[in-house]
Specification:
single chain, alpha/beta, six-stranded mixed beta sheet
């Protein structure tokens, strides 16, 4: 499986007009794609707008839609992605028969495991998903998927909700700071997410433990801070491959070139 982190330049207009906060479509959407986004939101692959999508001038989700819709709707999309130099290895063309014309936003694959998703963590209020998913064919004509996490002005990736939970006991919290990957793999119940929420993270991790063979300089669970989100997206990619849904799943992060806040976590995860 290929992995890459990339930077894409984004231009965002800064303005804030409160009367637009309750608008059906985020006011910061690029005018040229509003009709397409309306069609997306009326169809099977409608995405759930973030709470800040309409009230925040730097909404990462809205910026993501502004960036990707013009590219993915273009008749030159395959050429653009290949020319970017960051497309998955072997990328040939977008499979327009998959998803919504080959792509969708807020992808989490609900069809195989009911409403909880492949990681068992999906609910109306939480869960692992990718900001963009692009279905494509490789040079062998095999169906693959490109998952993309998009960040704009965020100072960090999402951290572990179990570690932050008000319901976690002192002893359980101590596990987060003292138990390493090996201990957590040997006893999943030491993780709040597994013991109290029934999430499948460590079950999937068992099958992929050989991949996570790098050296971690910190103490305790390496996934309690910003790496938690990267880890969960990686697990989603692995599970999609394991289930045979896609031949290969590729995971990327797009961040604003001037946003250096995320660099430490990305380098640490590498």
């Amino acid at each position: 499986m290929a992995r890459v982190f990339l930077h894409v330049k984004l231009n965002t207009i800064a303005c804030f007009l409160s009367p637009y906060c309750d608008a059906k479509m985020p006011i910061m959407l690029y005018e040229g794609i509003k009709t397409i986004v309306e069609e997306i939101q009326e169809g099977k692959f409608a995405y759930k707008p973030h709470i800040a999508a309409s009230v925040h001038v730097a909404s990462s989700q809205t910026a993501c839609v502004n960036l990707f819709v013009p590219i993915l709707e273009s008749e030159y999309a395959d050429r653009i992605l290949k020319g970017s130099g960051v497309a998955p290895k072997g990328f040939d063309h977008i499979d327009r028969k998959q998803l919504r014309k080959g792509y969708c936003f807020e992808y989490w694959e609900s069809s195989l495991e009911g409403s909880k998703g492949l990681l068992g963590d999906h609910s109306p209020h939480a869960g692992t998903d990718s900001d963009v998913a692009i279905a494509y064919r490789n040079q062998g004509n095999e169906l693959c998927l490109w998952l993309i996490e998009h960040k704009l002005t965020e100072q960090e990736f999402t951290t572990c909700g179990g570690y932050r939970s008000k319901g976690i006991s002192e002893s359980e919290k101590e596990n987060c700071t003292s138990c390493d990957i090996k201990e957590l793999l040997e006893n999943h119940d030491k993780c709040y997410y597994h013991k109290h929420c029934g999430y499948y993270y460590w079950r999937i991790m068992e099958k992929q433990s050989s991949f996570f063979c790098g050296k971690y300089e910190g103490g305790g669970c390496p996934f309690r801070s910003g790496m938690n989100q990267l880890w969960r997206n990686q697990l989603l990619a692995f599970e999609l491959e394991n289930r045979g849904v896609f031949f290969e799943v590729y995971f990327s992060v797009v961040s604003h070139p001037e946003n250096c806040f995320l660099d430490k976590t990305m380098n640490e995860y590498r």
